Amino acid sequence: MTNLGLYLTKKSINKAEVARRTGISKSRLSQLSGNDSTKLRADELYLIALAIDVDPGELLKEVYKDLKLLKE
């Protein structure tokens, strides 16, 4: 499961409702939630954040929390 999928599960978010509110298909949301190789686009992240009533920056930090800068 992806960080997005874990976040949505942890918050008990109904993906069908998110799909309805955002226009993102249920199958695309399933890919974004379950397949690590699926790339989340910025517009999708923003729409999902709006649909679940969270700050887009919070969702961005949660989804990409594993990204770190390279050490010099």
Q: Helices and strands in order, then pairings?
A:
Elements: H1 3-10, H2 15-22, H3 26-34, H4 42-51, H5 56-63
Helix pairs in contact: 1-3, 2-4
Short description:
Helix content is about 60%, strand content about 0%. The protein is an all-alpha fold and about 70 residues long.
Q: Which characteristics define this entry?
A:
DNA binding, Lambda_DNA-bd_dom_sf, Helix-turn-helix transcriptional regulator, 434 Repressor (Amino-terminal Domain), 60% helix
Describe the structure.
The protein is an all-alpha fold. It has one domain (3-63): Orthogonal Bundle (434 Repressor (Amino-terminal Domain)). Helix content is 60%, strand content 0%. The protein is globular, with a radius of gyration of 12 Å. The relative contact order is 0.19. The model has no long low-confidence stretch (mean pLDDT 96).
Radius of gyration: 12 Å
Largest sheet: none
Derived from helix and strand composition plus strand pairing, the structural class reads mainly alpha
CATH level 3 topology: 434 Repressor (Amino-terminal Domain)
Shape: globular
| CATH homologous superfamily designation | lambda repressor-like DNA-binding domains
Second CATH tier, the architecture? Orthogonal Bundle
Helix percentage: 55-70%
SSE order = HHHHH
CATH class: Mainly Alpha
How much is the average pLDDT?
Answer: 96
DSSP helix count? 5
Q: Report the portion of residues in β strands.
A: under 5%
End-to-end separation in angstroms reads 31 Å
Poorly predicted parts = none
How many beta-strand segments?
0
Question: What's the structural domain tally?
Answer: 1
